[in-house]
Design goal:
Elements (H helix, E strand, L loop, with lengths): L6 H4 L3 H22 L1 H9 L21 H6 L15 E4 L9 E4 L1 H17 L7 E4 L8 H12 L2 E4 L5 H10 L4 E4 L1 H13 L10 E5 L5 H11 L2 E8 L4 E7 L6 E3 L4 E6 L6 E2 L4 E8 L10 E10 L11 E2 L4 E2 L4 E3 L2 E3 L1 H10 L6 E8 L2 E9 L9 H19 L4 E5 L14 E3 L4
Parallel strand pairs: 3-4, 3-5, 5-6, 6-7, 18-21, 19-20
Antiparallel strand pairs: 1-2, 7-8, 8-9, 9-14, 10-11, 10-12, 12-13, 13-14, 13-15, 16-17, 18-19
Helix pairs in contact: 2-3, 5-6, 8-9, 10-11
The chain binds zinc ion (ZN).
The site of zinc ion (ZN) has 6 residues, from loops.
Length: 432
């Protein structure tokens, strides 16, 4: 039987949900206009006042925000309440420049933790569970978010934080953890360690809630098999409180967005025009309830698809696919959006190594794409017929993923130059 943390909200009739969103959007725009000078100026530049926003149908009129805006207004320029109303700061890792800080009132934290509680409940969590949280605690939102959600559900919460695998496994066994929250790569590592130490019969895990990094369905299947659990995806970003913005239900077919709190849009990453549900584009969020750091039309740079078809779990909130890439990395080839991550997925699925190069060119006004990939050492038998057949199969798989023809060129093992730093995967000759 499907369980909900806030059934009324999670299964709300869509027209009632739209009314709720409209009401909250109107209030939020007014709140931002009154309290965030930086955004008010952006609205004024577009000759907008709060009166122009009467409901979700007017959302498209509002200006976008990006990480650059948050860096420009660092640290408190986007805050909409006095600091005396804030009770916490969380921050992004700052791996790509200046950190972004995000402020929370107590109310913001409660709403955030409710989203995480929905995710834990959707994964089958109840007050009888033992929830081991091994996301990092601290400025990173992973640990605090799931910790708070676990408290709300009433699970016995183990605030492990990341690392120290010996202790993680000892507690997992001794305290009988049933739900594991961490990054998918750490889950895979824990699974390996459990196998090596012969602990498989001693663990009682039933579910895992994994996020904060990209992972494939193949990785999901492996983790589920190795740990004997059902593995659920969770999505979030510090700019929208943290994890729990979207989460998977028992169907494991896309993540339900907490639409009563977050208004989601898909836009064309080049023209920024809103696109209908079902289209692939950049995910944009508007925070409908956040008081301290309320962001309107924040561009996540994540590329995904929104799905508004009904889900058999009974939740009415739309689902987002897992992010397929970053709009920063997107190439437009023959008018089609192509991401290096899609190409890598196909290569790995077909048993090729992640040593490849993508060469994009334009001849006589027509774009072309060529993918050079090393033949796996154990598949190389020197036969030309084998190579031709492998190229043919890979071409078909690539066409199915990308929707356009890409020329495949298999090259000898270890012939693609290795890089010490970040590998150069894409050579776009159209730009040279
Ligand atoms: Zn569902």
């Amino acid at each position: 039987m499907e369980m909900y943390y806030q059934k009324e909200t999670e299964t709300m009739d869509r027209s009632a949900l739209k009314n709720l969103q409209s009401e909250r959007l109107v209030r939020q725009v007014k709140h931002v206009w009154d309290n965030v000078a930086y955004y008010r100026q952006k609205m004024e530049e577009k000759k907008l006042t709060p009166d122009d926003i009467k409901g979700v149908e007017d959302l498209y009129k509002l200006p976008f925000l990006t990480k650059d805006d948050l860096r420009e207004t660092y640290p408190f320029g986007m805050f909409a309440v006095p600091l005396s109303e804030c009770v916490r700061i969380q921050s992004t890792s700052g791996t790509t420049g200046k950190r972004v800080v995000s402020g929370y009132t107590q109310g913001d934290i409660d709403l955030w933790e409710e989203c995480c509680a929905r995710a834990i409940t959707a994964a089958g969590g109840t007050k009888d569970d033992v929830c081991q949280v091994c996301y990092g605690y601290g400025l990173f939102t992973g640990g605090p978010g799931l910790n708070g959600g676990s408290h709300k559900v009433g699970c016995l919460t183990l605030p492990m934080s990341s690392g120290n695998t010996d202790r993680q496994l000892q507690f997992m066994v001794d305290l009988g953890s049933t739900i594991l929250c961490c990054t998918p790569s750490y889950a895979a590592y824990l699974a390996e360690s459990i196998h090596e130490r012969g602990l498989r019969d001693k663990i009682r895990l039933k579910a895992g809630i994994f996020g904060a990094e990209a992972w494939s369905d193949e990785m999901r299947r492996n983790i589920e098999r190795d740990l004997g659990i059902k593995a659920y995806n969770i999505y979030g970003l510090t700019e929208m409180c943290g994890p729990g913005v979207a989460y998977e239900c028992s169907e494991q077919a896309g993540m339900h967005i907490c639409e009563d709190q977050y208004l989601a849009e898909i836009v064309d990453p080049v023209t920024l025009e809103p696109l209908p549900y079902g289209s692939k584009g950049e995910l944009v969020f508007t925070s409908l309830t956040r008081k301290a750091s309320p962001l309107l039309r924040y561009r996540t740079k994540d590329i995904c698809i929104l799905d508004d078809t009904p889900c058999s779990c009974g939740r009415t909130h739309i689902r987002m696919s897992r992010p397929m890439g970053r709009s920063d990395d997107m190439m437009v080839i023959k008018g089609v959006n192509v991401f290096p991550s899609q190409i890598e997925t196909v290569l790995l699925e077909q048993g090729y190594p992640a040593n490849y190069q993508i060469i994009v060119d334009r001849l006589e006004n027509t774009d072309s794409i060529e993918i050079r990939v090393e033949i796996p050492a154990d598949a190389f038998n020197g036969s030309l017929a084998t190579v031709t057949e492998m190229e043919k199969q890979l071409t078909q798989a690539m066409k199915a993923m990308l929707g356009i023809y890409a020329k495949i060129r298999l090259v000898a093992p270890r012939s693609i130059e290795r890089s010490e730093g970040k590998a150069v995967r894409v050579i776009d000759r159209r730009k040279i």
